[in-house]
């Protein structure tokens, strides 16, 4: 940490120019701190004269959203840089290009995605992205299946598992997603109307807790594929043509279901939010239909594309056994439904919320939305053995919301 200091809008321009020959001599700089995640500082440095810009993401030694009382491994940027480079190759550019990583300052300097918007905000503005399901399902299949034992040499894969051990960030997920929301705990954060409901529906439901415990140990022990590790709609940049996945600092070898489930859960929470926020009419109907369509398509395309590519890419002899690929992918999808439920629950009663639910302005509708979110989530967890196809999701969502 010898040469480390926290960057500011004042210091970042000089810093970037020391690290990279990117801006020209006559640049006119504008800088903004645009990070709205829970962990890091994110600066956009722009040359307004030549219309060029760059992103500098700096890791802090503590959780930004909590303050210095919650320390965090500052070296997580090393993992993030490596995985961005791996994902860039595997997904053929569905992540931003990294220009440089500085292990004194724990900064990643990368491509700016100026004509993109964070998907969560796009969806909250009721925008639709026609290529999203195709592109994100490609990303999922390529980054997950191609980093698994099905495809990789098993010794190389084990080296990767070691390289991507990410204990502190995994602990955050183990606690915030799989433990605290199902217990009474200091870091839980919920509105008053949820306090008794939380105890009755989550803390006292022993059958639910047993299923969540199984999913937690799958997350911890199933080193299946190199995950992004935090694939919610705030980790995706999008526009009408393209999709780019950002922020893979939670990456590690874990169950494929974790990435797919986190994504689907966040789309469903936007559905619940839209249902509560918009008046009846064509705008509402169009957005809800779009969200159901991408939910269905992401699930079905992940399955179809995985099964299609399997015979071309599989290297393990036993994985070529007839029937195995269907069993393997369906098992991923069963656990995906479980992760969907856990992610929806933790965003309602846990430490880290989502704007989709918190921004519902009407108190009565917000209470109804959050309670329904929890009840639907429980169905995903308890009923996951029967939730495999995109149509299964649509049916369940329509029943509860
Ligand atoms: C303390 S970090 C809280 C959450 O923010 C990240 O984006 C992850 O989702 C994590 O669980
Ligand atoms: Mg993030």
Give a topology summary.
Layout: H1 9-19, E1 29-33, E2 41-47, E3 52-58, E4 62-63, E5 67-71, H2 76-90, E6 98-102, E7 107-111, E8 117-118, H3 119-124, H4 132-145, H5 154-163, H6 167-176, H7 195-203, H8 206-221, E9 225-227, E10 236-238, E11 243-245, E12 252-254, H9 256-277, H10 282-313, H11 324-349, H12 355-358, H13 363-382, H14 390-400
Antiparallel strand pairs: 1-2, 2-3, 3-7, 4-5, 6-7, 8-10, 9-12, 10-11
Bound molecules: 5-S-methyl-5-thio-alpha-D-ribofuranose and magnesium ion (MG).
Description:
- This protein has helices spanning 9-19, 76-90, 119-124, 132-145, 154-163, 167-176, 195-203, 206-221, 256-277, 282-313, 324-349, 355-358, 363-382, 390-400, and strands spanning 29-33, 41-47, 52-58, 62-63, 67-71, 98-102, 107-111, 117-118, 225-227, 236-238, 243-245, 252-254.
- With 401 residues, the protein is an alpha+beta fold.
- Strands 1-2-3-7-6 form a five-stranded antiparallel sheet, with helices on both faces. The chain has a three-stranded antiparallel sheet with strand order 8-10-11.
- β2 and β3 (52-58) form a beta hairpin.
- α9 runs antiparallel to α13 (363-382).
- The longest helix has 32 residues, at 282-313.
- The protein binds 5-S-methyl-5-thio-alpha-D-ribofuranose (SR1) and magnesium ion.
- Magnesium ion is lined by residues 37, 230, 235, 247.
């Amino acid at each position: 940490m010898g040469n480390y200091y926290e960057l500011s809008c004042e210091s970042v321009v000089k810093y970037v120019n020391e690290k990279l020959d990117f801006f020209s001599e006559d640049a006119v700089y504008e800088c903004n701190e645009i990070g709205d995640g829970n962990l890091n500082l994110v600066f956009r440095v722009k040359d307004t004269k030549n219309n060029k810009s760059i992103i500098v993401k700096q890791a802090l030694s503590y959780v930004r959203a909590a303050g210095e009382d919650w320390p965090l491994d500052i070296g997580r940027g090393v993992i993030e840089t490596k995985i961005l480079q791996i994902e860039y190759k595997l997904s053929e550019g569905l992540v931003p290009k990294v220009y440089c990583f500085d292990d004194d300052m724990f900064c990643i300097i990368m491509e700016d995605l100026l004509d993109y918007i964070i998907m969560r905000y796009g969806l909250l503005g009721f925008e639709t992205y026609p290529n999203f399901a195709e592109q994100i399902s490609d990303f999922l299949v390529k980054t997950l299946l191609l980093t698994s034992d099905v495809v990789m040499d098993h010794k190389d894969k084990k080296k990767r598992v070691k390289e991507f051990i990410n204990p502190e960030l995994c602990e955050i997920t183990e606690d915030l997603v799989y433990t605290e929301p199902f217990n009474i705990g200091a870091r839980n954060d919920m509105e008053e109307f949820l306090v008794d409901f939380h105890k009755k529906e989550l803390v006292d439901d022993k059958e639910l807790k047993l299923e969540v415990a199984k999913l937690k140990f799958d997350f911890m022990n199933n080193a299946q594929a190199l995950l992004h590790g935090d694939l919610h709609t705030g980790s995706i940049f999008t526009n009408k043509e393209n999709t780019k996945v950002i922020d893979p600092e939670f990456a590690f070898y874990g169950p494929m279901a974790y990435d797919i489930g986190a994504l689907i859960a966040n789309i469903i929470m936007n559905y619940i939010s839209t249902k509560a926020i918009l008046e009846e009419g064509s705008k509402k109907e169009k957005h809800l239909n779009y969200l159901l369509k991408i939910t269905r398509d992401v699930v079905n395309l992940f399955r179809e594309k995985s099964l299609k590519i399997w015979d071309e890419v599989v290297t393990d002899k036993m994985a070529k056994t007839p029937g195995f690929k269907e069993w393997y992918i369906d098992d991923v999808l069963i656990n995906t439904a479980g992760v969907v439920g856990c992610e929806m629950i933790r965003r309602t009663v846990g430490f880290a919320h989502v704007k989709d639910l918190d921004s519902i302005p009407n108190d009565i509708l917000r209470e109804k939305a959050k309670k329904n979110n929890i009840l639907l989530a429980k169905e995903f967890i308890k009923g996951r053995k029967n939730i495999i196809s995109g149509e299964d999701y649509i049916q369940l969502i329509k029943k509860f919301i």
